[in-house]
Design a protein that fits this description.
single chain, 3-stranded antiparallel β-sheet, 4 helices, 6 strands
């Protein structure tokens, strides 16, 4: 894909797990990205391979926290299986993310069909202690991407 070619041609200096999707072709791949490797994978060849704590789920590409986080991956897989076929922004925000406790600092969810982005950030350091702390505990803001990109420069 074009995205993978761009990554191949880039000087990579950090380790990341990225998701690259195409709403027109209804596909998402994940990419293991570092200075030493660039590996794209799908739900058919999910990485890392470990049926015990990172099971393959039909039509789902996921990593819960990082590359080797069995505790988070197990909980994420349980939630993805529980809501399989019914995952939308509300299920993600109200059920999946708080249960997995993924997204301490920042969360961004992308709805490529409706072209919406949902974003949440952790509490500011100078905010009252009574406010929710982690991004997964806080309110999300929905950004309508088509409207934002239609704004004149």
């Amino acid at each position: 894909t074009e995205a993978l070619a761009n990554f191949e041609d880039t000087h990579r200096t950090c380790n990341l797990i990225l998701g690259v999707g195409d709403s027109k072709n209804s596909m998402v791949n994940a990419i293991e990205y570092s200075g030493y490797t660039l590996t794209a994978y799908s739900d058919q060849d999910l990485l890392p391979q470990n049926e015990t704590w990172h099971p393959v789920i039909e039509d789902v590409v996921y990593n819960a926290m990082d590359w080797n986080c069995p505790n988070y991956d197990t909980v994420m897989a349980d939630q993805l299986n529980k809501y399989h076929g019914n995952i939308d922004e509300e299920v993600s925000v109200r059920n999946i993310l708080p249960t997995v406790q993924s997204g301490d600092l920042h969360i961004a969810l992308y709805d490529l069909t409706e072209m919406n982005m949902h974003v949440s950030f952790c509490r500011k350091s100078d905010a009252p202690e009574t406010e929710p702390h982690y991004a997964y505990e806080r309110q999300f803001t929905r950004l309508h991407m088509n409207d934002l990109f239609a704004e004149p420069a």
